């Protein structure tokens, strides 16, 4: 069989749309189980229609869910004990007419006790159900709350960074590639008023084995170590780095793993002057 | 990117439903309720009735999840079939016909012409995305997917030879795929560029 031709015929589209005669449908299913390409094409048609439905989704009224859950709730819990499981009915009253009264009273009390007992049982199980629901909601809530807290923290941190970066006193210093690494680049945001320095590797290839990038701030007395960059540092991370005042330039060199107290300037990768 | 998200969602909802976990119903409603309505709406065309049908469909999915065969189709394809059949059953029911006797959508006496003459986007629930397809492509998807037309009926309606219905359907879905891909490419792209600009 020519699979490409079969796929191009459109029969798979009609299959997914459920518009084939039973015989033709079975044929598609047989081919799909034999040829992964056909199976994949069907899945891809299905995904398109799913995405179409999703693009056109109209959110239903939440009351629909409430009603559905209510009817599940009716069906879900195990059936409560029914009359047939109760102990068999009372023995017939004894023949002696003087004896029937205490028996009847005792029976009535036993019946009342049973009613109370099963009534309490069902209250108890309703309580347990509610308790279970409450506990699961509570733990859901706590999980969500914890998630919110983390999100809020990282949002706050991001906001603070954004405030500093967009502060009028902040200078963006582009560290341009040197002949050692003409395509490398990085950027430093330097704010001498807020005493904050941020760094972002906009384009640094992964360092060669045994080497690590080291960031330097150069002032009147020479280069000062600002630390080595993590090996897996993403080019999109904005890092807060130690702030030094009166910096004239920032630079990155490629050093042995762990960094050096003074830079090997022959390994200069990028450099930029604070204007 | 989007399709992995779709797969992930499908797996979660399916697992919960198979475990008979009521959370599965909540997730089903949240993630698929709207999409299922988009299947029901074009058939029913009365939002409140659509939601009643959706209610029945959700229960049917819950009850019949054991019959779903992951080897044969995606979960949504299976659910969409249940939804469409339920919607069609509803408009064929007496109570519905009585209720909407002034409306002209009775399937048993279809008024096919409205489709080609007036663009159907002004009707409730007809796809917004579909309106961006070529007319030919849009109408074939509407007839076969969102309405209850057989291949033969669709061929008559569109004045096409029966043999071209399949290829027309294929071209329509290919165009839809391109359209969706374009949208899917844009969103992550926008997200990534924002991420790059702000650095986090």
TrEMBL record, chain A:
Keywords: Cell membrane, Membrane, Transmembrane, Transmembrane helix. It comes from the Bacteria. Pfam families: RskA_C (PF10099). GO terms for cellular component: plasma membrane. Signal peptide: none annotated. One of its GO terms (biological process) is regulation of translation. Residues 107-263 form the Anti-sigma K factor RskA C-terminal domain. It is found in: Cell membrane; Membrane. InterPro entries: Anti-sigma-K/W_factor, Anti_sigma_zinc_sf, RskA_C. The chain crosses the membrane at residues 100-118. This is Regulator of SigK. It is a single-pass membrane protein. GO terms for molecular function: sigma factor antagonist activity.
UniProtKB/TrEMBL annotation, chain B:
It holds the Pfam family Sigma70_r4. It comes from Neolewinella lacunae. This is Sigma-70 family RNA polymerase sigma factor. Residues 28-95, 130-177 form the RNA polymerase sigma-70 region domain. GO terms for biological process: DNA-templated transcription initiation. GO terms for molecular function: DNA binding; sigma factor activity. InterPro entries: RNA_pol_sigma-70-like, RNA_pol_sigma-70_dom, RNA_pol_sigma70_r2, RNA_pol_sigma70_r4, RNA_pol_sigma_r2, RNA_pol_sigma_r3/r4-like, WH-like_DNA-bd_sf. Belongs to the sigma-70 factor family. ECF subfamily. Keywords: DNA-binding, Sigma factor, Transcription, Transcription regulation.
